[in-house]
Amino acid sequence: MHVRSREDEIRARMADIAGDQPSAAERELLARLIRSFVGKTPDGVERLGELLRGGDRTALRDHAHGLKGSASNIGADTLAGIFAEVEHAARNGSVPDPDLTLGRLAAEQALVIGVLDDLAQELDQSLNQ
After folding, report:
1. Helices 24-52 & 98-127, crossing angle to 10 degrees?
2. How far apart are the first and last CA of the chain?
3. Residues in contact with 91: Cβ distance below 8 Å, sequence separation at least 6, in sequence order
4. Percent of the chain with pLDDT over 70
């Protein structure tokens, strides 16, 4: 999947949340939602890495589940899918390869955060007009 698809996923979710013509208050809400995700997700992925490398599978499963929900809420479906894979593996008693999983997550997270940064700027500009 390419960058445009990530943008399409996220924009579709934003439209689900606030409609096609969001009010100023809704655009503000979307911008806060985006900034919260962008601010919290890198630390969450770092913690996931720690759990992949030696935490217990229950903690790994629960943490991956939370990250999956956050990614789904923002419309980052591909990223949510990777978290779902980790959650599923941990639920079934295994731990995915940490290096491979973290590499996939880093690449996907970079794409998603790039799209979200652009969208947040777009929302900010629309609020300042």
Report:
1. 170
2. 34
3. 61
4. 97
